[in-house]
Amino acid sequence: MKKNRTLENAIATIPSGAVVMVGGFGNPGTPFSLIDELLRQGQTDLTLIKNDANEAGHGVSRLIENGQVRKLITTHIGLNKVVIDHLNRGDIDVEFHPQGMLAEKIRTAGSGSFGFLTDIGMDSEITRPDDLLDWQGKTYKVEMALPADFALIHAAQADWLGNLVYQGSAINFSPLMAMAANHVIVETPDLGAPGRFKPEHVHTPGAFVDCVVRLESLTSDYGILEHHVRR
Amino acid sequence: MMSAVERILSRAVIEITPGSIVNLGIGLPTQVMHYLPDDFDVQIHSENGILCAWKQAEPESMDPFLIDASGAYVSLREGASLFDSAVSFAMIRRARLDLTMIGAFEVDAHGNLANWKIPGKFSPGIGGAMELAQKTKRIVVLTTHTDKHGLPKILETCRLPLTAKACVSRIISDLAVIDVTDQGLVVREKLVDISNVDLQALTEAELTFAIEGKAL
Q1: Distance CA A148, CA A144 (A)
Q2: Which portions of this protein are annotated as coiled-coil regions (chain B) (predicted)?
């Protein structure tokens, strides 16, 4: 079954109030085209789960600046002063997790499990007494799985069964989120027929993917950011 | 005369031993890579999913899909691998990294580190810092000795929310190299011509002095 959809139809399945995972660490892996369509359609009261808030004026920062986001579940927003200002003013609820804990919570949801035990952050204010569990003579922190309604994913290449291949450091959270959301929307500039990938080279198997949007071209967001080039 | 940042970075690079796996945190630490010789035997881990990240490529071969955790464009050395964030942090939590260099808002005499939250002012967030600080074999903090108001960043006890407790082995500031020991902070090297009294005056925690190298 072909999973090809138009950009507009794919994003129109997302209602206001949805919990939406967004792949990407910085720019690589951020599905800028899916995000910009969500900006255009204007769904509100969103909960976003993303490693970072992109940089001001780009990616999920645009959704936050446009007032469409109620809560951001993230690890680090240090490169986005605009979102830090939103946080300081109380315009948005920001929940910080250690990065590997966020990844593991998503991975756990994606494996159909409900939580895991860890010692990360036990000595810090992110751990409340209620989070602790004594088990066989040791104390652990319980981390619950983190599922979502939707995942927005950028793949370097895909086929219409939804098999995905990522590129460079754009892998990051994408394969984890593709397993953890109930409805997975993928954008790719390179969509082809099944059989194009060596089966053992597929990163995300198509069973996890609900629809694939072929991008006609990539905007400047996907290119080199001059201010990150070392001179 | 080197700038404060150059003094920190040029001293920090000496901490990297051949054959090691090293994570360089956002800010000053990621810049340490540019002080490494091109043929140096080290594997740089970047928590966004790279082992064997290396210096920025030539402009014509820069890859927009290949950055380090600070957003800087990197290249890959021979033998590099790319992986997802769960694998990246499995590597960290399983203590496969030998050294992490990390920035600090505050660091204290007990080796406690605070670098993720200044309530109401600047909360960049945790990023990979908690897991790196808790699980890497050796943590070296790179920091200016005082903040932009001239106030000490090396404290008796951290006041900001902690990233991790008792995790720091060594502090490299623009003024000195200081070890965290069971007996408190011990100054091993001075990086500028400064008296013990003046260095102590810029440091909240009590210092003892056991200079190994010569003052520059």
Answers
A1: 13
A2: none
pTM as predicted:
0.97
A79 — contact with chain B (CB < 8 Å)?
yes
DSSP codes of every residue in B101-113: EE--SEEETT--E
Q: Do A169 and B66 touch (CB under 8 A)?
A: yes
Q: Is position B47 annotated as part of the catalytic site?
A: yes
Question: Do A103 and B88 count as a contact with CB atoms less than 8 A apart?
Answer: yes
Q: Is some CB atom of chain B closer than 8 A to the CB atom of A228?
A: yes
Determine the residue among B44, B51, B84 to mutate to test chain A binding: the one whose Cβ has the most chain A Cβ atoms within 10 Å.
B84
The CATH number corresponding to A4-211 among 3.40.50.1100, 1.25.40.20, 3.40.50.300, 3.40.1080.10 equals: 3.40.1080.10
Give pLDDT tens digits for B192-215: 999 999 999 999 999 999 997 554
C-alpha distances in Å from residue B115, one per residue of A124, A172, A174, B46, B127 = 12, 23, 27, 18, 10
Residues of A numbered 161-220 whose beta carbons fall under 8 angstroms of chain B's beta carbons: which are they? 167-176
Q: Is there a contact between A230 and B34 if contact means CB atoms under 8 Å apart?
A: yes
Set B15, B47, B106, B131: catalytic member: B47
- The first and second tokens of residue A72, run together, are 């951001």
Q: Which two tokens stand for residue B3?
A: 């700038």
Show me where the domains of chain A are located.
4-211
- B114 contact residues in A (CB cutoff 8 A): none
Q: List the strands of the sheet with A4-5, edge to edge.
A: A4-5, A211-214, A181-188, A148-154, A19-22, A46-49, A69-74, A93-96
Scored b (16 or more CB within 10 A) or e, A215-226 reads: beeeeebbeebe
Listed residue (A49, A22, A26, A8) closest to A228, CA to CA: A26
| Burial annotation A3-28 (CB, 10 A radius, 16+ → b, else e) | bebebeebbeebeeebbbbbbbbbbb
pLDDT the model gives residue A184? 98
Domains and CATH numbers, chain B: 4-209 (3.40.1080.10)
ipTM for the whole complex = 0.97
The number of residues in chain A equals: 231
Summarize the confidence of residues A91-98 as an average pLDDT. 97
Write the pLDDT tens digit of every residue in A138-152. 999 999 999 999 999
Judge residue B61's burial from the number of C-beta atoms within 10 Å of its C-beta, 0-12 exposed, 13-18 middle, 19 or more buried: exposed
The answer for residues whose C-beta is within 8 angstroms of residue A162's C-beta and 6 or more apart is A3, A184, A186, A204, A205, A206, A207, A208, A209, A210, A211, A212
